[in-house]
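User: Can you write out an input/output pair for a complex, sequences first and structure second?

Assistant: Here is one pair. Inputs:
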Amino acid sequence: MKVGCCMIKYSIKRVVAAIITIFLVATITFFMMNMVPGGPFNAEKSISEQAQNSLKEKFGLDKPLGEQYVNYMVNVAHGDFGLSLKQRGRDVSDIIFSKFPVSARLGGISILMALLVGIPLGCVAAVKRGTWVDNAIIVLATCGIAVPSFVICTVGMYIFGVNLRWLPTFGLGSPIHYVLPVFALAFYPIAYITRLMRSSMLDVIGQDYIRTAKAKGVSQTVSLFKHALRNAILPVVAYVGPLLAYTLTGSFIVEKIFVIPGLGGQFVSSITTRDYTVIMGTTIFLATLVIIMNTLVDIVYKIIDPRIKLD
Amino acid sequence: MKIDKKISFQLNVDDFLPATDEEKLSLVQTRPSVSFWKDALQRLCKNKIAMVSLVVILLVMIFAFIVPIFYPYKYTQQIQGSEYLKPMTYSAQEHTRIAAGEKIFPHILGTDNLGRDYTVRLMLGSRISLLVGLIASALVLMIGSIYGAVSGFFGGWIDLIMMRFADIVYTIPDILLIVLISFAIKEPINQLSTKPGFEWIHLIGANLISIFLVFALLYWVSMARIVRSQVLTLRQSEYVTAARALGASSGRIIRKHILTNCIGTLIVTTTLQIPASIFTESFLSFLGMGVAIPMPSLGSLASDAINGLNTYPYLLIAPSIMISLIILSFNLFGDGLRDAFDPKMKR
């Protein structure tokens, strides 16, 4: 009972903190964008003063900053990010919700891939500790976390796309189109999860209850899967939140290089075209997503790991 | 010392004799005490991987900071008629000059689309990446350790508020905000650089300043947390109490105990922050939000090379290998430092 009460208190605390953070991010985003001198329309020299003023009126940019801020925040709370400045007549929320599914599918497959490859690799390395298998996996994982994603993207594209011509290098037309982008996005997380899993597995294998299980005559497979894996996997669960954030930001580069019509590529191109409302909307949307996921993962993590003290 | 088996209340006079020289010798330390630094250094020197990484880091630093001074080409120098030269080849003009008896330094990695020697651009790119890593880590170290130390030292509600704030900054998705901030403050910093007294900004470039700014704004949290927890635990540790009981002044306690115990963690965290900063910088440069043209960075070199990927793959491979090498060696060296400074954490 007491634990349940603590749990609810903890969850409420985390949710409140998450809401504050989201609010803070939206505020920072708004004022950051307003720091850019001259406003969004000054770059287009061809527009006359009158047209500029009417444009400003249309987007509500003629009002004092405080009022603009309140208006924007109220609209954002209703899911309305305003109109795109560069893509005529399109809602920012429209753009986000039409592009996001593409990124979500790509990111989801990559996360799944990272977990499905990273966890077994880490387990194998831990079980075969000190052998050449372990050493090979460690060397690969150590190198893996040192290679930036754009290097993986471009080198993979050069070897498999340009040189060998095995894989297509742009778009997402068929399942085979997913191979390179997913590989590029999942590469770093695979290496990271492998290292995480290996060290946490080694930790667990050294625990008394595993020795007890062995002493009882439990076979190695059962002791590994039933006892060790369940406990060793916890740090990986905690990593899912940061993993999601990594995948979302990693998609900026991957989608740009492989010309994928997702939200990441959209974000990068709207930075180049200085489409302010799209930049603001996408930042707030992605940040909210990451913060919500992080909070959920943290709460779930505390529920499934009773060893963690709630304070 | 021999033990008398007799039960007697009579004192053994022998026990009260002055110690002989031989007995005194047994109390003298046979080995000189090993200082903290010496101990750590010894452990570090035994770690082969860390030493190799250190050598690689030093070589890269020489390559990035010293070699360009003596190098016959400059990174902005555009050589007419030698665009897109393959590695170790010369342009037609250079061939005629060589035929005329002139000695011309070879383009080891060829030249880029504007006829600039790629080797020297790679050196400058490594220099920028290293500088960003080092300066950003120094900033993070300064801000994080001051914030953490203040929070841990004062405790109570100040600590509570400061740590809640740090929690909130921690949950902000960093790269997203870095992209946003570096986009937003580029113009204001450019404007600032035209004002008197701020001309130095031009030298460094507005983008680099915004990169440093966002690192300083967002990346200090983990450092602050580490320092705070160190200060909190160290303040209550037995040996600090013991030192205080022995009459040590606060200054001595801070110098001899808290700082020496903290400094290992600080060095390790700072070293591991360097590759993380380089990673982020290359990410930003690759998206075109890094250093200003014509200054190269490893990320922007790779980004520029993508368009010519079919014909000039070496323009991409060289910066890619360089950046991976830098990050890898800093990571491994940081791991080695951690093992050396904190043997308790060694797995």
